Amino acid sequence: MLEDNIMGEDLSLNLKLHLRKKVLLYVALPVVVVGLLIFGLARQGFLGDWFDALRRATATVHIVDAQQQPVEMAQVVFGTVIGSTDAQGNATIGSLVAGAQQLALRKSGFNPVEQEVTLKRGSNDLGTFTLQKSPAARISKISLTVEDYISEQPIGDAYVTLSDLRPIYSDSGYEFTEVPVGNYKLTVSKSGYNDYIAPKVKIGTDTSKLPQVLLVKTGSVVFESNREGGKRGVFIASYDGTDQRNLVERIGEFEDFAPQLGPNQNKVLFSSTRDGKSDGEGGYKPYFYVVDVDGSNLTKVSTKSGIYDAVWSPDGGYIGFTRYNASATTLYSYNVVTKSTSTFSAYDTYAFVYSGDGEHIAFSGLKGGVQGLFYANSNATGIKKIDNQEVYSLEFTASGNLRYLSYSGNKTNYYEYNFATGKRSTISAPPIDKIGAILSPDGKLRAYVSTRDGRANVYVSGPDGKNELQLTDINKVSQGDLLWAKDSSFIIFNVTSQDETARYLVSTNGAADAKKIVDINLSYGYGYGY
């Protein structure tokens, strides 16, 4: 019995021990497994991310300048996280960790701001921050020279601005002082010139001089070009060749050609086939038209074709031209203002010229088969005969007298007719290359083309032919193709050679180089084309 009791007690003890082990195993094993899992997650970094997610924060800032204006594209930095402000100066930065953070605000041209902030989980409105502009480096002196494009002479009374900065002027040019580094708009203007505008001029720490500015006088040249599929058209450009465009739009297969800019340079005469009338030879009849230099007020001058030798009066008030009518060449005088045409129908005309004021016209020809030199009002009234000879090379002088020549046998005679006295006097023969010289609008100079040793160039002299000055050395200037500037400061002319057909201009000061304006096409027989 005792043995049985002992064996029973041992069995009960073993059962109790096994039960405790099982309980311990059931409790400890999950703890170990969870521990190992957490250790693995920690080793992989997942646990840290999970804890960070519990601490995520978002921060919003508003940035303005000293004038309380929004600052766009300012950099907002939280450690390694970077954002920027929008056009309203706002920025919202996410994926931040709650807690203490170092905030940095930066923008080029402003002093940076750095500040420690404490972020809570979720959204954080940090409010408005003000950035103060940093003092820019300044350049003590920046120089600028302004010259006339044509004369190459300095211009000292132009209105010059570098954004809101104004320079002082001295004999050495314009000078800006204490200019902050940055980007500026340069504007140069002067009455009688096209404005010069450079929208973005960068001033750096090494800037001491701005590029030279060349001001171009207001005004235009008109020219013929066949750039549109070989069809001739009339174009316009500035004196430096910029702003080229159609003066009038060419129509279909028809052509506009041989433009002549009037002396007052606000109207243009040209020939055109835009009427579309057949000439019976596979082409179209040309007619004269006048248009304002801005392309408006297109007016037909001639009702008949076959006209030629068109000439503007010096004041721009009349246009003279001739037309062959069966047995005679008839002279016409068109009033640009009244748009009316006067006809010298009783005369067979072969040369004519307007007086300097445009009020009178002199012409040579036949009346009833008898030679003569005639003088009349430009509207074909008050015609009177002042010489009985056949004369040529008509030219009004600065004093209003009329010069001309006649041939008698093998001799050439030169005359000057004084309208105040009604008398003719014999004068010395002028140099052959000065015959037909063009008097300047102010009456102080005569311009002409002279060919010397095979080289054709532009010359000027005083109204008496003295004090000659050569203006060009191009050597290929076209004879007769001269046009004075309204202010008598320069001359426009053509150059024709195997290399080019182009329009040029040159200052009358004798120091500046001639300058090419534009390549052109020339149609002779209908005017020289200015």
UniProtKB/TrEMBL annotation:
<feature type="transmembrane region" description="Helical">
    <location>
        <begin position="23"/>
        <end position="42"/>
    </location>
</feature>
<dbReference type="InterPro" id="IPR011659">
    <property type="entry name" value="WD40"/>
</dbReference>
<keyword id="KW-0472">Membrane</keyword>
<dbReference type="GO" id="GO:0030246">
    <property type="term" value="F:carbohydrate binding"/>
</dbReference>
<keyword id="KW-1133">Transmembrane helix</keyword>
<comment type="similarity">
    <text>Belongs to the TolB family.</text>
</comment>
<protein>
    <recommendedName>
        <fullName>PEGA domain-containing protein</fullName>
    </recommendedName>
</protein>
<dbReference type="Pfam" id="PF07676">
    <property type="entry name" value="PD40"/>
</dbReference>
<keyword id="KW-0812">Transmembrane</keyword>
<dbReference type="InterPro" id="IPR013784">
    <property type="entry name" value="Carb-bd-like_fold"/>
</dbReference>
<dbReference type="InterPro" id="IPR011042">
    <property type="entry name" value="6-blade_b-propeller_TolB-like"/>
</dbReference>
